[in-house]
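Hi V.,

You were right to ask for the full record rather than a summary. Here it is.
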Amino acid sequence: MSVPPPYSTFSPTVVPPASRTGARVLSGLAGLVLTPVALGLLGYGGYRQQNVLATYAAHSDAVSVVLLVAGALLLLAVATLGAWSSAGPLLGGLLWGVLPGLVTLAMPQWGLELLNLVPWGQLRFGVATWLFTGALFGCGFLLVGTGLASSLVRRRREPHAR
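Predicted structure:
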């Protein structure tokens, strides 16, 4: 009488990890497009709100509040892209925050030249405030930090991710 082996032979199917190229490209493009829009909305909305507060008004400018909230939500969307791929927050933060902020801190004259790329008017004044106070620099670093953190978390969860 023959006894069957106690365990059947099991050979798991190994599936190679899927390519992340599409996620990286789409996240990077979205970060490059959404970040300057968000920063522009925040700069313009902040400038409008500053003008209202400069007159010691007891009321608020509803348009500026909407612009500030919309800009913050767009930045949140860019940061959330890090769950898909860290390319979006990294590229958006480096290109639209850290690089212009660093250039302006090191050479203020170049910061003034960068402002020539922004359309004239209240938007330019809002962006100038963000640029020369270091807020743009700090915001860029926050996005870069978000991208790096999401990349590190992904590497811990997926040991074979590239």
